[in-house]
Amino acid sequence: MMTSEKDSTSKNGAAVPALVDETHLTEHDGSRDSAAETVVNGSTQNYRSTANLIESPLSKDTGSKYSETLKILLPWRPTKKGSKFPLDDSGLFANIYVRWMDPLVWKATKGKIKPSDLFEPSPNDGTEAPSKRLRDLWEEEVKKKGIANASYYRVALRSIRTRWIASTMVLLLSLMCSFTSAAVIVRQLLEYTESPDPDYRIGIALVLGMLFTELMRVCTINLVYILNYRTGIRLMGGTLTLVFEKILHLRSLKDKSVGELVNLLSNDGMRLFELTTFGIFVVNTPILFIPGSVYTCFILGPWALVGVATFLLFLPVQSLLGKIVAKVRRKCIGITDERVRMMSELLTSIKLIKMYAWEKPFTKKIGDVRNRERKKLETAGFVQAMSIAFNPAVPVIAAVLSFVGHTMSGNNLTPAQAFAVVSVFNALRYGLALLPNSVRAWGESGVAAKRIKSLLIMEELQPYREKPADPDIAVEIKAATFGWDVLDIKGEKKRKAEGSEKKGKGGPRGRGRGGAPAGKQAQKGKEGGMDEEEEERKRVPILFDIDLTIPKGSLIGVCGSVGSGKSSLISAILSQMRVMAGSVAVDGRFAYVAQQAWILNKSVQDNILFGQPFNQERYNRVVHACSLQADFKQLPDGDQTEIGERGVNISGGQKQRISLARALYADRDIYLLDDPLSAVDAHVGKHIFQQYIQTALKDKTVLFVTHQLQYLKDCNEILVLKHGRITEKGVHSQLMSAKKEYANLIHSFHEDGEEQEEGDMIVNQEDVEIVTKSPLKTESVQGSLKRKDSKRASKRSLRREDSTCGSTRLRRSYSVRSTHSATSETAGHIEEPPEIEDLDVNPQDGKNQDIDAPKKEGDGPKALVTEEEKFRGSVTLKTYWSYIKASGGVIVCSCTLLLFILSTGSMVFSNWWLTLWLNQGSGVPYNESDPSTLNITENPRLNFYILIYGMCLVAVLVLAFIKGFCYVKVTLGASSRLHKAVFASILRCPMKFFDVTPTGRILNRFSRDLDEVDVRLPLNMQVYLETLFIVVASILNICVVFPWFVLALVPLGILFFLANYFFRHVIRELKRFDNIMRSPWFSHVTASIQGLHTIHAYQQEKEFLRNFITLLDRNNAAMLMYNMGTRWLAVRLDSMALVINTMAAVMVVVFHGQIPASLAGLALSYAIQTSGLLQLMVRTASETEARFTSVERITHYSNGLEEEAPARIKGADPAESWPEQGRVQFDHYKMQYRENLPLVLKGIHCDIHTNESIGIVGRTGSGKSSLGVALFRLVEPADGVISIDGVDISKIGLQSLRSKLSIIPQDPVLFVGTVRYNLDPFNQYSDNQLWQALERSYMKDRISALEKQLEAPVIENGENFSVGERQLICMARALLRNSKIILLDEATAAIDSETDSLIQKTIHEAFTDCTMMTIAHRLNTVLNCDRIMVMEDGHLVEFDTPAALMSKTDSHFRAMLTASGTDVSRYLTGSAQTSATLEGEESGEEEYDTKL
Fold first, then answer.
1. DSSP 642
2. With contact defined as beta carbons under 8 Å apart, do 1252 and 1427 qualify?
């Protein structure tokens, strides 16, 4: 169970009352309800523990828990001024007729409606109270049934049962009125027409009776929908809040991806809403059928049972069809999850995919998933279409069988009997009309409930509760072993799908936490009786025998190699890992700086404050400590500048410093810093260490994981990790004296040329001020020098530590510097806005000065992320035309519509044939004195009439089947083509589109909008077309019988037009608001999931939940008003349709004796039918248009987005063997990121020779990264040419260009799947080639040690590998590609010195016959290049060998080295002797030379 009975805690640590028994939950009076209090999202409020809190959660009435809700029964109530949501204060009739929406309807009609005009969500319809209620009910369910047998379905139904009971009672009244009008009164009217001497008073009474019963039917059915909509909003909102709250407290996502969770929140919540709306209509059938069967038998005799049996036979068929749909949809939802997850992954890795030219393979991969999804959709759609198509045919079939049997057995059939039975059968049809929707809602909501349960039973993060015995200790870990759960993605999904939460095999060995509540018993208390099988699940230990005591106020340094467990140690302290042995005690609150900085799509200041109140003095201290003042001056709006989603418009260093500022501003007790200096240069790193760590955090407890080993000597204690164990600990001098692992790391670190204690040899040119100026020399200074470090590196590259299995273990002294792998910087620093240069106040801004980007209202900071487009006015003809074309064209659509007409025509013909047959009587002229002339059984052509009537049955069935089949093929063909088009369009967008468009907004198209087009639009449109043709046929039939009825149609037509005119405007705008307001909480969910560990560390769950509730409430308010808008129209149309019933009944009375009784019966039956269908027709027409807004949004992305150049250009693309030499020439090349923006590359002119190694350096904003952007044509040139082997790359296709280039990015990108899939996504290489690539990237040992080796699973973002291991896997991927031209974006800048030397050796061996360009962030990495390009302000100012550049006293390159404190002279003199000595030491070894 989720909380224990006596001592439980809320998920955020606040106290929660113990569980109460069911009687308390259901039967307590209001006074005790108001006395019970709880903490909901951190705030205390009255706790109404009733079974129906969802009905009136915040009622202040102390008399009865239903008193507030029952006020709705007051006929009139004065509306309170300033009411947040007038529905709460409206009377019965104002609710039924939705009068409170009139002002919105008027505004929408005038085109002046804005999102701010929408009413705020009512407290009764909010999400907080229902979610609290649902959580309590879920905990009680788990307590009673156990976790394996607990059902969220039962919980959901229990939470709404009282409102459903009330709604069912109102529905019962509506059905009684419907039956009375359609059956009893119609028969009396028809008998009235047959009587030779009628009493007009009886006729008028019957007309008034019909008017009253129909009016009651209209009011009650509308009240049912209004009650259900509000109940559904509460259930959906409460469920989604409960689910999101659970997500915020998960220990890990396990097998669930971000895309799957977004899909769960977007679609599964809607399934519960649909259940609440349509679920109770399953009672229609029994309520109508019992009296209907009795009454038809009374009219027609036993043969009526044949017709009733037809309905009864159709019921199990309908149920079976519904179950089939539910089963197929269950499978389809899983495929949809897979597709959405892949789309999410594709969007977050789009830059890498573009650079690797993987668009086509990914298109095929996602297309294959979509094809599987479409097959399931077709099956479900066809079955559902059959159900809908046969529904109007059932009354016809029942009538044909009953009347044929009745007459063939020798019984006469009068018009009063025939059309009374037809009217009853039509009424019974309403019992079936909503049955498909109802059954589908039950089935799909069942699937949704299981998926929700699978999330609710996942394990939550349990902060350590035990404190160290010594109050001066902050963290105490005793003999602890920590591990992660093994994840088999397919097995996990299968296990969850089968619901195999079985009890009992005992706990795993050696896993107890002592007093830590995250242990087994505490988990049971928190998770609601977590199964023992869950506890038994296999784990992989990562950290072993950890004994660690961290005193308060101490600075602890942590170092180690790749995969040694440094980040895992932080995860263990944050209780994200499982304690398999030992105990953990913590005293203090955490601040956490992740290795991959997590940035929100908010302003810089909001990212730093992170929910804390603003304090100017504290804020200034934080900004200074993090060295952010200069950045604020460069940013367009200072600290109010909006940061793009995932930080796309700031550099990695800025992200890391903002993350550091967030931690410092939080003012916590314990600081966990995971490699915080890897993304900043040496000077800024020194400032941060001194001002931030040593000064600002001097009284705090700090665990400092770093690769900057020069800082470790200032730590109070140093931990050295190796293979998951703490191998050494102590102060710097002690560890150096021990001459073990730490001493080796330090020596290796200094051997790399970093002798200076402050690490200034590692040059990051971003902070070096160059004061010299020198024109570009065309003549290079020749010289050949030896760098002493090159030989040493070669020697070191062969000095490896053998493991027990004889392989190499990687060692590194620091972690990989990278941003989150799910960012758009996934391909490294080759960004359209790659560095700080793009945020400079100078005109090199390639993003924030975009004149096309919409700005937020007011004169505040400029918005980077564009506002989502909102269309105005009617859905355009262009949108409909796009759908028609996607459906197959005009001819296909016309043929489909013709099938609808023929199907309706066959049913109309059957009724007319029945009328003609009854009019013929015995076949002789009518004689009043001879009643036998009316006996149709004596007609000599009886068999002919019966044959034609029976053939109508065959025609109806055949046409219904063909119509359903063709309709599904056409509509799903349209949705699949639209998906294909929008997917292709998204892939063809330039990178700037992804930089300014949130991923959630794009995913919205591929999840919710596509779901609308796949499922809801075809369903709405089919119902609309069915009712349209039936209504048209019905009115035509009435006009034929009563020509005077045409006069009444004129005012009716005007009223209908006006109502529809007003309605179309408001419903369309409300649907658009619903779509637009959905995207923000999509993005909020995505961002929250990606930053889950940071949210946990800062205990910001309440704040993020509060933001989610705010966004969800806004969206729910728009959705509720959209649905209420449909009822606004429905009740008005139904009320006006009463006129048709009344007019038909009046004409039957007035024209008594002038028309045959059979024609009168025909007109009456159609009039009754029309009154129900007319509003359905108009409502579904408007709803269909509203659903077309999803088509509008998809086609906007399909047709309205800017495209890149073609993938291939026939006749212009070079030969497949190109490029053979790898020569790159820049010919006066100029580039700008947008039109009307300044140039970022200004006339670059140079020639890069075949197989040459080029280093690219320059200050921030100099344009070095823009060279990479230009080479891959992520931005097209403004002028000039780049040629590769003499081919102008701007003249060839992007696929032809990018497929021939390679990039090794700084930031690792791994996809969900297997190791093999990440190395070779498209099965182009053999196993032997894969293992060779892994061996050359020094990952062979790590992968071969995994249970499934190449088939080992990789979870989202590759988080089951360390960041360093991810980088090495990406290196192996690039080695497999083996391109002639390769770009390195400082791919090894953050790997430890020894592994770096191994990788550098691999790079130089593997790419000896390649042209290699290295964008350098640290100057020492390019000193062994053949030539160096020095960029400044978009100009190429120097291009020569390192020796030549260093020999010039006025060169920029030398100035950069000198400014960093490097002694350049030692590279120019005295190197020969050192080199010779190294050669002697390495005799027989491969020489590793450089042209220095």
1. B
2. yes
